[in-house]
Amino acid sequence: TTDERFPEDIVYEVDRILAKRVVNAPGRPRHDGTRRQITKYLIRWKGQSARDDCWVREEDCIGCDEAIKDFEERQGVPPASS
Fold first, then answer.
1. How far apart are CA 26 and CA 70, in angstroms?
2. Which residues of the chain have pLDDT under 50?
3. Is pTM beyond 0.90 here?
4. DSSP strand E in 1-82: where?
5. Helix extents (H) in the chain
């Protein structure tokens, strides 16, 4: 599919999320020695093979709310409270 804002760019749809990992953000640690954490999801794209799976930062997973919810439910994670 294409995004009307970027007609030349191909936008892939998420088929499902396969895994989740939390990594330390690059750069220097905070003053207390800790690092900011970044959540990433391993995404399978609709119509694509496992060869095309890739890790995507949570903040870049625009429109992935339902896929993230489905993944968390499969993992037995209780739903986030509002």
1. 29
2. 1
3. no
4. 2-3, 6-10, 14-24, 37-45, 54-57
5. 65-74
